[in-house]
Design goal:
With 199 residues, this protein is mainly α. It is 90% helix and 0% strand.
């Protein structure tokens, strides 16, 4: 009877909801940490991230806006980052955890720095158009990476997990594929729409 109930509730959406929740929590932790750090150490933040901001400026000058080349660079860069995350996830899930926390913190820090020189409205205008698609894609992709890594690690210690490993990995890869598909419109918006609303 218990097995029947477990089988009824052991559906893909329910199972993956847990990983989405973990993914969102880690990302939110990064956002809060980055915001707290930026607001409490404004001068140090500017000094610490000065090289990174200069690097982004150089990349921005090299890339022509509103071109297919820019779209391909953004899309391929995001896809490669996602693949690294899921490929390295069996190493204690460290890569997706780091990616979620670090990117959350980086978004907060850069947003605070840009808001000081421009405005909060400028930050929102620059991030919201593509962020509405890209952030969910990122969270789904990292959730898939977390689940992928967890199932592989768990299968080492559990015969039951080993028996279900193929099914579990297929579920993770299905959501990972969804995240990759979402990266396509996100890159299009970031390339061709965001520059229009910013300037």
């Amino acid at each position: 009877m218990t097995d029947g109930i477990e089988n009824q509730t052991d559906t893909t959406p329910f199972r993956f909801r847990i990983w989405i929740l973990i993914s969102v929590s880690l990302f939110a932790l990064g956002l809060i940490a980055g915001l707290s750090f930026s607001l409490s150490n404004p001068d140090y933040t500017v000094e610490f991230f000065n090289d990174e901001l200069a690097y982004f400026d150089e990349i921005g000058e090299m890339i022509e806006p509103d071109t297919i080349g820019t779209f391909l660079i953004i899309f391929i860069n995001n896809v490669v980052a996602f693949f690294f995350s899921i490929a390295l996830s069996p190493l204690l899930c460290l890569m997706p955890i780091f990616s979620l926390v670090f990117n959350g913190a980086l978004i907060s820090v850069i947003s605070v720095l840009v808001a000081r020189t421009e405005s909060v409205g400028f930050v929102l205008t620059g991030m919201l158009p593509h962020g509405i698609v890209e952030i969910p894609a990122f969270l789904i992709g990292q959730a898939a990476a977390l689940s992928f890594g967890f199932f592989i690690i768990a299968s080492i210690f559990s015969a039951n997990r080993r028996a279900r490993l193929g099914t579990d990995l297929k579920r993770s890869l299905k959501f990972f594929l969804i995240s990759l598909i979402l990266l396509f419109p996100a890159a299009i918006i970031e390339t061709f729409v965001t520059p229009l609303v910013l300037y």
